[in-house]
Amino acid sequence: MAARVSRNRPPPPIAPPSDPIERALRDAVLEAPRDDDGPRLAYADWLLERGDPRGELIVAQCTRARLEASGDRTSDVHRRAWRRERKLIRTHIDAWFGPYGSTRHFSGTLVRGFLGELAIAPHKLRERWPVFQHEPLETLRLTMPKHPVTVEDLRWIAAQPELRALRQLEIVHELGTISFDAARLWPLLVSDVDATGDAVDAPRLRWREAITGFVYSEGYEARPAPMPSIAAIARSLPATVRGLGVYRRDLVDADVAPLLAGRSLEDLSLSTLEASGVAELARARQPALRTLWLTTASEGLDAPLADSAVLATVDVLRSSNASPELVRSLASRRLRGLSLYGRRPRAVLAPLLAGTVVHDLEQLCLGLDVDAATLLEGTAFRTLGRLDLDWSKLGNAGARVLAAMPELATLAELSLQGCEIRDPGAMALLEAPFLDELVELDVRDNPIGDRTAARLVERWPDALVRVRRGSG
Predict the structure, then answer these.
(1) Contacts of 231 (CB under 8 A, 6+ apart)
(2) Does the structure show a pLDDT above 90 at 418?
(3) Which of 194, 241, 324, 392 is deepest in the core (most CB within 10 A)?
């Protein structure tokens, strides 16, 4: 439903819409409810009548968003819309998004034809507001390349009428990210008359009632000031928080317990868990949890999660150092996304790939040893849209297995970075009868010759094909 904006050339002068009809159409998009595509498609028609391919992009992204909202990520219509979107963006990115400036200063995500997500420093947002104000932003992420985000920055943002539909405001600080429900934040900001030029950061959490997510990362480098304890951070967060991420060494039960107590989380990321921290997580009751990302201090520590209730509602699981017990327990679960980082032997993966879990997977990331590549043959994928086997020991034999699999006909994205594939394996992918509809293919860091690399790009002319570092 979204596509990243990526460009690095110097920007042309700022040029907001000058045609009064176009301004009216863009204003209608800004004023429309978030889920109403009518004004977007009306603007698309106006653009298409004038031969502007931006209209085609709006139609393609709205089509894909509608299909994905109904659970369709693998149909022919979905893939055609995605492929067309990718080609349009690659061809016209500079013409469409030149006024926004260099991506050294911002990054953005296109949502249904418009800039829906923006990450930028507050002073850069003010400088280029004449252009950004015409985009129906839903998520604004304020970064701090040199100076922390301040209360005055937020007051300026709250004063912009074009941001009245903003859904989420994220503030990057020295120790992570705070996420706010924008609609709940603005009244609190107005009423907090004592807040002036203070930095908005983790140790001094303001407006607790509006916080929806919090990411805390101590990193691994020495810091001059004493860090707040995990328990102190947990006490400062409201019970209404739905997303939590904590990245620090040696998370134990005394850290995990206060983070989970009294909260019903939807998204949880924990790194790096010791055995007692895993045990505390395994005992937790989180009936709303949908996404879980965890890293343990060493392999095998997460075995207690294999039969735990905390995984009952999870439909996207990402794990580093996953134990054989946890991997085998996933075989009969119903997951939409699964990422198991690091290579695993055939004996561990065989029950997983033979299980019913593969039926509903839309995304799969695995690391395979050389003798495990053939396990993919005959795997009963039904809805798989993305397969990531980066840094697996596939070699040419593994590439040939993938090329001959009819079960991969639903794939839109295939990532094979660093898989030891040479020209013969790449040629097998070129001739694969079931990979015609790829939208993205990544074969970087493989010893593939220039002529074969060029043929891969030619094979999928409307797809994003990465064959060398810096390509795409």
Answers:
(1) 254, 255, 258
(2) yes
(3) 392
Question: For residue 243, what are the contacts with CB-CB under 8 A and spacing of at least 6?
Answer: 179, 212, 213, 214, 265, 266, 267, 268
pLDDT at 9: 45
Please list the alpha-helical segments (H only) found in 261-412. Answer: 275-283, 324-329, 346-354, 395-403
- Regarding predicted confidence, which is higher, 81 or 12? 81
Which H or E run includes 152?
helix 151-158
Q: What percent of the chain has pLDDT over 70?
A: 88
State both tokens at 444.
């970087």
Q: Which residues, at least 6 apart from 402, have a Cβ–Cβ distance to it below 8 Å?
A: 376, 394, 408, 414, 416, 428, 429, 432
The label of the residue with tokens 């690659």 reads: 90
CA 269 vs CA 212, 254, 257, 281: distances in Å? 15, 16, 14, 11
Neighbour-count burial of 147, counting CB atoms closer than 10 A to its CB (0-12 exposed, 13-18 middle, 19+ buried): exposed
Q: What's the predicted TM-score (pTM) here? A: 0.84
Q: How far apart (Å, rounded) are the C-alpha atoms in residues 233 and 216?
A: 9
| Close Cβ partners of 20 (under 8 Å, ≥ 6 residues apart) | none
CA-CA distance, 175 to 438, in Å (whole number)? 39
DSSP-derived 3-state class of residue 60:
helix
- Report the alpha-carbon angle 395-396-398, nearest 5: 70
Q: Report yes or no: 317 and 365 within 8 Å, Cβ to Cβ.
A: no
Q: Identify the CA nearest to 93 among candidates 202, 8, 170.
A: 8
Q: What is the pLDDT of residue 461?
A: 83
Q: Which helix (H) or strand (E) holds 47?
A: helix 38-49
Amino acid symbol at 286: Q
